Amino acid sequence: MATLDSLKCALRQRAMEMASCPRKPLSDKQYSLGFDILVRGSGWMSYRDFIIPHLSRLLAPLVKSHGRISVLEIGPGPKSVLACLARNLRQKIRRYTAFEPNELFATSVEDWLSSVSEIESPLPDLEYPPRIHRMPFIPHSHQRTGICTSGCDNDEKFDIILFCHSMYGMNPKAKVIEEAIGMLIEQPEGGMVVVFHRENDFYLDGLVCHRTASFPTGSVFVVDDDDELDRFASFVTGVLAEDVEADRAIRAEWRKVCRTLARREEAHPNQLFFSSPAIMAAFTKDATALSELTTQVPLLNGNRLVKNREARLHHPASIVRPTDVKDVQQCVKWALKHKLSLSIIGGGHSGHCLWPNVVAVDMGAFDQIHILTAGNDREGWCSSSDYLVIAGTGCKTEDIIRKTMAAGITVPLGARPSVGAGLWLQGGIGHLARVHGLACDAIVGAVVISVESSQALCIGYVPKQYRPAGAVCPDNETDLLWAIKGAGTNFGIVVSVTFKAFVAPTYSIRNWGFPLSDKPEASLKLYNFDRLVAKNLPRGLSADAYLYWDIDQLHLGITIFEPSTTRSTSENPIYTDILKVLGLEDDYSMVDSIGLFEAEMYISRLHGGHGRSKTSSFKRCVFLKNIGALNIANIVVTAIETRATPLSYLHFLQGGGAVHDVAPNATAFGCRDWDFACVITGVWPRDQDGTKLARDAIRWVYDVAKDLLPFSDGVYSADLGPDPRDAALAAKAFGPNRPRLNRLKQSSDPCNVLAYACPFQNTPIRQRLIVLITGDICAGKDYCAGIWVSAFTLYTQNSLMVRAVSISDVTKQEYAVATGADVSRLCQDRAYKEQHRSALTTFFQDQVQRRPCLPEEHFLNLVNSAMDVDLLFITGMRDEAPVASFSHLVPNSRLIEVRIRASEQMRRNRGSSCDSDDSYHEESKHRNHIKSNLAAVDYCPSLIFDNDTAGDDAAKDFAKQHLLPFFADDLQRLANMVRPVPEFPRPGICLRHVLNISQQPGGLTLCTSLFQRHFTGEWAQVNVIACCEAGGYVYASALALQVDIRLALIREAGKLPPPTISVPRSKSNISKTDSSKNNSIEMERYLIPSGSSVLVVDDVLATGQTLCAVLHLLQIAGVRTQDIRVMVVAEFPLHRGRELLRRCGFGVVNIQSLLVFDGA
């Protein structure tokens, strides 16, 4: 599909071809109508999935360090995007100023910000009224001398200046941003200019970004309606023809252009989709610091010809070319000083070696290659290898192979001659991998410039004559060597690598080609190749396969490589068996290591030989086992049948052998158990770079990778970068090693200087689970938390970040400072803690008396300090009903409470070391007894664990049965079925269309299954499933049928025959419209027998108004509150529904939700 930029060009070109009549700009009303089209539906998703998350990440540390902040927003539109942020961020905004030239938008945003909402103001804690200037933001304009509000200086400065898709038409953009940077506060540091803009139109000459991010999958849609298309096309072009007849004719042509360039989807036949990739760029006062670097480090002379065509489309702030180690160190010092990031150019194959408005460091000058033999000085080196090769990171694969081959040796690098150091440091899969392992397995040492300190480091074995002056061995040398072998682009700038070398072989190569008539034949051929050929090859041989389309037919190409270091004339007996399966080869050749590059099938045979054509390509690689299995064969064959471009193909490189011999945790390259690396390759003519054809090919690569990912045994990290589409792939790129790599990244690159390497930060693929562990003294809360952390680490094979923390630690630290107590003993010595318990309690209560919001502050600080954690256990909470009290503070996370129970005797046994003070113990026991009884009456925890059994088996079983299911993929599948609907049912609300689940294929079945599996009660004890129209009917009916329990329907009053019972119901603020009135709900009087056990099923829990009425109705029917349970599909904690239910006397009702969402 076309991008908005290419559509704009096409529309303007068509208008110019038709008429040369005068043009006029859009009126404010016309602009408003077009803007509304752009930001709804899929356009809103770019706000939800890109703008709001990234703006939140930028603001969070700023408000933490600055406290209250001032904001200047340029072009907010009818509403500021700031109102979509979490409340804890919005309430930190003390001043708000905006420039909005559109009179309608200015009036709308002013009224909206000044109005008192039924819930709260969008910016609730402003110190001054918002100031909206009805004029454009013009650089160096003297019109802005009066932008301040009363009480501020005329030269007002801001913490944040925001351009959210509001820089279109502002030129030159670099000057506009420089002007804005001059309006940032001086102290405290950290003020930012934040820009969101379409990706294809954002080049800033010489300005350096503090942080950038991209959103390549952004899109917008327009309804295929003439009037709608007229408004949309006019908005995109920004002009109309003054002549009425000419305007009518142009509009008709514009509709044709839109319909021609758009993409249509079967699920939405009446909608036209356009691509709208976006970029985020954040600038600080250091954005103009480039000259400081370029006066000390040489610039690249001329253009750097990077191999990757996607990278060529990026415009870096500058490219520097250091010539020695000191130059590289200077680059790092500059980046650290100004809190900026760098990208690194090695061979230039990476799509992120150049990044927009970021300084790139070209390592091309470090191209020396040295060979050390057994006779050289090799002090400290112990290995069976007779040769070492020291290669600078400016070398290409061919350079190393050519130099070593002349000495009769080789290094097991990859199969692409022009690839650079990124290959060796992140894996390196070549035709010697089954014999000698990956390229990274041959690394024994490296010289690295630390991006934490700019210090030169010698890691592993580096011959002394190749150690830079002043280089040191770091304390974590073992960790860094481990990391370099598979993830080496992330931890420092690598200057040189020491490889162990092997005897150079010659290669015999046999090729087969098979035209395939249909999918069954293709599947059979893949099966025979996999099971009868590849699996039977000795490790000295390796097999490649290619699946491609040529001459109107599907083809399978097969190559078998046999390296040999001897001149044997006898044929390997394995070929007898191979010939029985594949037949006689099409051709046979013998080559050396250089000739091997040209002998690759994709170079010499595919589509006439890609090596001779001017093409560009895009690749992603997943690791597979059993490629002949029917499910995988179907996916790969379908992929070729639906390829986006004729030249695209799949390449399978065989693994196993020495690759598998290395344990997954022995190096950072943790994916070892695979048979084939499947390289998904999209290819297009080079003159189509950056066009729709290239974008389609890239999207095809990602789609195929996504289809194969569930069946894969890992992903190759060498291609991956900051593109958000890589996040799901990166999550499987390092096997069990990602948590360790993540921690090492944080310590080795704390300022994220190398921000554009392959990511292994935990991405928010799964929703975070926060478990509040409560219970009486000595029930075993901290013990259980420790067991569950260990259990989850084992169950998930380190794929989740899990942590246990105590909320009382902050109070203990403050108490220790105030009283002189030993804080370490307060945290670790139970007896010592018991001596201070009464004083600690008094101290905390005094703090709360002075600061009533202290519990909430402690909770939020604890949660925010563990943002990288998937599962957070919190102990030490004393608050009643903590889920009801705190869930609205973390609406993006699932918050549950696990109450630990233990018998009095068991608690005495565990607390025996602190029982010497009988009077205190009795007082404590009495207080706990009262507290437990109150808790039993007042509210119900999410889960209860009886910790009366010795050992940890029961605790582990509990975690597996009750906590692990929250991370099941089927919950995420269910969440993906809930479509957001912005500005519905009224402005300011983004509805989550929960009922849409039932309209998706398999949605109702999945939801019913999850209800059945996640129910924490006993189905045999449930007598009735009750539900209220309309959402509850859909899900409750399916569940009642599944579990064979009768249904009780609750309706609006007046719709059921008498006799009935009824209660009034208040509509929630979220769902009601202006015409909504409070009404009643009813059910048949004798439908539910008195004393029944009832499960209430509904679609959502938000404010709790409807559910509260349902529970009142059940009470009237004679159902005891403690006999009621509730299950909902989706919960919206922001609206504090649980708290309302508790205030109304229903805290004891157990409430479960399958999904948790922020917002409405």
TrEMBL record:
GO molecular function, one term: oxidoreductase activity
Cross-referenced SUPFAM superfamilies: FAD-binding/transporter-associated domain-like, PRTase-like, S-adenosyl-L-methionine-dependent methyltransferases
Residues covered by the FAD-binding PCMH-type domain: 312-504
Source organism, top-level taxon: Eukaryota
Keywords from the named record: FAD, Flavoprotein, Oxidoreductase
GO terms for biological process, alphabetical: cholesterol biosynthetic process
A Pfam family matched in the record: P-mevalo_kinase
Listed GO CC annotations: cytoplasm
CDD domains per record: PRTases_typeI (cd06223)
Similarity comment text for this entry: Belongs to the oxygen-dependent FAD-linked oxidoreductase family.
Name of the protein in its database record: FAD-binding PCMH-type domain-containing protein
